[in-house]
């Protein structure tokens, strides 16, 4: 086989041969773990030497297995070994005579030309023979003899290790063959197969740990057992397990170990590839002290290696081969015993569960009962593992066993809480076809209603919940769960009146229900109040729900999330942030994975309202990622709405449209029927920005029809009313414009304590009537920074339309709008304002994008600069996130941008750059920090949301 990945080592061999050809002696020591390629290196050296006319004397493991080193060398030299009764009579004399014959023979041959003496597997040679070998190298130092000596680094080779140490002390060069890198492994596979390995085969080859012996045994075995399919120059792995040849290779490497060590390795292989000595001792029923000799032997043989605070099988293939060699019944018994030991030791429940699952068998009540107990323990820590356990327990439980129903319900519950809604729905449908008690059927239908609700299928969810409640004699807890499911479905189905009556009845009979249901009723009433324009009452009811949330069921989205959402709607952002922060880990624990997206989506809305578009996009992306494995999810449209708005304001409609196209709308937010309406609003804004007002006429009419009855869009987006009025006027539809203004002013009039609502009404009225004073008040009173800039732009556009007398007023207002847009990175809107100013004969420089470099410190945004400073201080991503009230996802998002812009690859390099920047700041501007004008990562200047102008 061709050598791969040994360029440096082969160069040393060639230097050794060249020295002998020049008439000089030399010694090269080669060592490495078993199977690393020492023998191949020696064989290739012998072949090359002979090709160069160098006499080669070779002794390897096959010869040393048959006879001692001295006799092997005599044979290699072509000298007859003295038989008993021949030569000197005393054994010692015969030995010395043989030693001298070897020295003399080598000397004689060296007189005729260079000689290569290649000796392999010297760990098998006696200490006396090794001492003799050292003497030969010294005695023949003046002759052109090249000594190539190899040994395996195994426990039996301590004498060889001492010889190598002494020779190295004498100045002899020693090389250690390292594991082959991935490129060399791939080339070996190509050499053997004549085809390029596919990713699965390449990954399996990587499990050889760079050991060519294990790799070649694997590839040869797979090919011999038809485990590889070669087609069109590609080699595809089709085998499910390791071939028999890999098993044989593993046995060969372990054969020289003691039986006790092989026993330890068998048990620990089933335990894990990486394990602690105390865990291994516990499973073996002994102490760590007692197994030290076996561990030492395995380490010396290169089978195990130190991995931090644990020991690990050095090669994945060897570990798998050892594990696979254990017969299945024995392996299952070992898994069961290991799981019980780990569970009793109080270690991680997930580790114990993994073994108990593999050891569990059909008809094993004790083993399955242990797994039952583990599900709830593991669910908060590892929901996916809990699902795997629950599903396996169901599969191992017979259809007629009494425990089957409870285990089925547990499996559905864990699937839901792990966020695997599609699987939960399919599993539930399958389970409902099997016979079960009426109570179990009702419980399963209740879970299905929850699934349907979370998937946005509210009408179907309501049917399920109503069917359950029609059953007589339901237990109180199940009835509460069904009531809550029906309540959620009614809210999501836009059945506001029915939901409100239902919730009010529950609150009035609160003593008859559990906290989860009563809390859900208060949330429903809060949302109903919000929908009927009673904002103060909505906040009061949401706070009441929060006060009752101490013991709510883990299914529920935490009421603090609802309260923070409502506060964000009315732009009480500091209070909303405080509510989110006060919830802390409670939100994460109670929501489990099924609601894992909710905090991220809400933080995205907070960032959007504050004009932090990069952060809003990062959090919304994190929210979508959290729902990616669940199938349709009620939070998708909320996340996409944030993404689309942030992209529209910072990058333009083409960028925003890419987010809109990702998922078909049709899903509403938990507890709110208006997420879809918000999504419809932004899609209309994008369409108008791309194609003009005529492109949104139908959708616009539908949006306007909803406003008098449901004013949520006017509350949650302080610029919504202005956009609707602006669009109505562009469509020459003053009737609808007046209707929107009337709804907006009525909302402000009925809620005097909410400045953001009042500013929105002023903004809408100013557009409808061309009232500069109203627009000016809105540009000052809006709490939303983008809304302030939008009102200033409308004021400037109005003044510009009234002739030259208002030119300076228009320029002043447009400059105010430009500063506002630039200040929050609304690059696309800023570009539109610059065009308006150019029409007035004024040119403003593009500070946001044009003057900021694309790389280097000056390219960092304000947020990126703050994060860079904190990371340079040694803070972790979690600590940075806590300080800036962003998520870890957002921190990582910005950190990637920082690394790219600064062209660095580590936190250490970042700390160095921050120190350099701090040193370069002069005393006069050091107090300004690292702040730079805000920039966004979304490019483009296209048609604006204030009209059909294009930059």
From TrEMBL:
<protein>
    <submittedName>
        <fullName>LuxR family transcriptional regulator</fullName>
    </submittedName>
</protein>
<keyword id="KW-0067">ATP-binding</keyword>
<dbReference type="InterPro" id="IPR041664">
    <property type="entry name" value="AAA_16"/>
</dbReference>
<feature type="domain" description="HTH luxR-type">
    <location>
        <begin position="853"/>
        <end position="918"/>
    </location>
</feature>
<dbReference type="InterPro" id="IPR016032">
    <property type="entry name" value="Sig_transdc_resp-reg_C-effctor"/>
</dbReference>
<dbReference type="InterPro" id="IPR036388">
    <property type="entry name" value="WH-like_DNA-bd_sf"/>
</dbReference>
<dbReference type="InterPro" id="IPR011990">
    <property type="entry name" value="TPR-like_helical_dom_sf"/>
</dbReference>
<dbReference type="Pfam" id="PF00196">
    <property type="entry name" value="GerE"/>
</dbReference>
<keyword id="KW-0547">Nucleotide-binding</keyword>
<dbReference type="InterPro" id="IPR027417">
    <property type="entry name" value="P-loop_NTPase"/>
</dbReference>
<dbReference type="Pfam" id="PF13191">
    <property type="entry name" value="AAA_16"/>
</dbReference>
<dbReference type="InterPro" id="IPR000792">
    <property type="entry name" value="Tscrpt_reg_LuxR_C"/>
</dbReference>
<feature type="region of interest" description="Disordered">
    <location>
        <begin position="916"/>
        <end position="951"/>
    </location>
</feature>
């Amino acid at each position: 086989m061709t050598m791969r990945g040994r360029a440096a080592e082969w160069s040393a061999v060639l230097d050794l041969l060249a020295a002998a050809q020049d008439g000089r002696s030399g010694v090269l020591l080669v060592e490495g773990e078993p199977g690393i390629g020492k023998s191949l290196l020696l064989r290739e050296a012998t072949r090359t030497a002979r090709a160069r006319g160098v006499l080669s004397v070779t002794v390897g493991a096959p010869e040393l297995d048959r006879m001692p080193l001295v006799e092997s060398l005599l044979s290699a030299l072509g000298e007859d070994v003295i038989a008993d009764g021949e030569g000197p009579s005393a054994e010692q004399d015969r030995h010395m005579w043989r030693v001298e014959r070897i020295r003399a023979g080598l000397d004689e041959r060296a007189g005729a030309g260079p000689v290569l003496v290649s000796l392999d597997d010297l760990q098998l040679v006696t200490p006396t023979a090794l001492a003799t070998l050292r003497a030969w190298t010294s005695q023949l130092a003046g002759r052109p003899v090249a000594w190539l000596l190899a040994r395996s680094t195994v426990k039996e080779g301590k004498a060889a290790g001492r010889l190598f140490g002494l020779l190295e002390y004498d100045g002899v060069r020693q090389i250690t063959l390292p594991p082959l890198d991935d490129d060399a492994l791939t080339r070996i596979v190509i050499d053997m197969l004549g085809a390029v390995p596919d990713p699965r085969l390449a990954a399996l080859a990587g499990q050889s740990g760079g050991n060519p012996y294990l790799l070649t045994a694997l590839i040869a075995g797979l090919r011999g057992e038809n485990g590889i399919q070669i087609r069109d120059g590609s080699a595809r792995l089709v085998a499910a397990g390791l071939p028999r040849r890999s098993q044989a290779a593993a046995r060969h490497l372990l054969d020289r170990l003691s039986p006790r060590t092989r026993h330890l390795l068998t048990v620990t292989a089933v335990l894990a590839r990486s394990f602690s000595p105390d865990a291994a001792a516990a499973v073996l029923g002994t102490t760590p002290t007692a197994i030290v000799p076996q561990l030492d032997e395995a380490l010396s043989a290169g089978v195990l290696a130190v991995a931090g605070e644990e020991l690990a099988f050095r090669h994945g293939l060897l570990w798998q081969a050892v594990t696979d060699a254990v017969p299945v019944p024995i392996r299952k018994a070992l898994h069961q015993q290991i799981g019980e030991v780990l569970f009793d030791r109080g270690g991680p429940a997930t580790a114990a569960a993994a073994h108990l699952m593999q050891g569990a068998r059909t008809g094993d009540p004790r083993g399955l009962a242990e797994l039952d107990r583990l599900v709830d323990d593991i669910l908060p820590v590892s929901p996916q593992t809990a699902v795997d356990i629950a599903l396996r327990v169901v599969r191992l439980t017979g259809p007629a066993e009494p425990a089957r129903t409870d285990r089925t319900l547990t499996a559905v519950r864990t699937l839901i809480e792990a966020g695997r809604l599609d699987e939960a729905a399919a599993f539930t449908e399958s389970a409902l076809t099997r016979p079960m008690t009426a109570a179990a059927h009702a419980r399963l239908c209740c879970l299905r209603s929850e699934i349907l609700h979370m998937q946005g299928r509210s009408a179907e969810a309501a049917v399920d919940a109503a069917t359950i409640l029609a059953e007589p004699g339901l237990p109180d807890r199940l009835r509460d769960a069904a009531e809550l499911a029906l309540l959620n479905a009614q809210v999501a189905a836009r059945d506001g009146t029915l939901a409100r009556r239902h919730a009010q009845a529950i609150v009035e009979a609160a003593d008859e229900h559990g906290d989860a249901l009563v809390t859900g009723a208060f949330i429903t009433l809060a949302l109903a109040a919000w929908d009927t324009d009673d904002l103060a009452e909505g906040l009061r009811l949401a706070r009441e729900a929060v006060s009752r949330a101490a013991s709510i069921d883990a299914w529920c989205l935490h009421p603090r999330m609802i309260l923070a959402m409502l506060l964000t709607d009315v732009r009480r952002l500091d209070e909303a942030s405080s509510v989110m922060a006060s919830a802390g880990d409670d939100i994460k624990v109670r929501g489990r994975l099924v609601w894992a997206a909710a905090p991220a989506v809400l933080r995205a809305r907070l960032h959007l309202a504050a004009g932090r578009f990069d952060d809003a996009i990062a959090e919304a992306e994190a929210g979508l990622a959290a729902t990616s494995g669940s199938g349709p999810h009620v939070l998708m449209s909320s996340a996409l709405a944030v993404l689309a708005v942030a992209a529209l304001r910072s990058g333009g409609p083409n960028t925003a449209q890419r987010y809109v196209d990702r998922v078909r709308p049709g899903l509403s937010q938990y507890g709110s029927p208006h997420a879809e309406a918000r999504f419809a609003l932004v899609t209309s804004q994008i369409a108008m920005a791309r194609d003009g007002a005529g492109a949104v006429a139908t959708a616009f009419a539908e949006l306007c029809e909803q406003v008098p009855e449901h004013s949520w869009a006017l509350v949650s987006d302080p610029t919504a009313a202005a956009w609707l009025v602006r669009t109505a006027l562009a469509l020459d539809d003053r009737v609808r414009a007046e209707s929107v203004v009337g709804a907006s002013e009525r909302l402000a009039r009925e809620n005097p304590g909410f400045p953001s609502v009042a500013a929105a009404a002023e903004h809408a009225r100013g557009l409808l009537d061309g009232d500069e004073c109203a627009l000016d008040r809105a540009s000052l009173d809006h709490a939303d920074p983008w809304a302030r800039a939008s009102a200033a732009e409308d004021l400037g556009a109005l003044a510009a339309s009234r002739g030259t007398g208002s030119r300076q007023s228009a320029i002043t207002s447009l400059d105010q709008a430009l500063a506002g847009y630039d200040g929050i990175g609304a690059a696309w809107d800023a570009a539109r304002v610059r065009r308006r100013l150019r029409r007035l004969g004024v040119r403003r420089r593009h500070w946001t994008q044009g003057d900021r470099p694309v790389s280097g410190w000056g390219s960092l945004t304000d947020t990126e600069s703050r994060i860079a400073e904190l990371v340079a201080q040694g803070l972790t991503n979690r600590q940075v996130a806590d300080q800036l009230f962003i998520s870890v996802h957002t921190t990582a998002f910005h950190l990637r941008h920082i690394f790219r812009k600064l062209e660095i690859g580590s936190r250490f390099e970042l700390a160095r750059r921050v120190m350099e920047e701090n040193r370069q700041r002069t005393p006069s501007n050091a107090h300004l920090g690292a702040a730079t004008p805000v920039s966004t990562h979304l490019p483009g200047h296209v048609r604006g949301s204030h009209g059909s102008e294009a930059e």
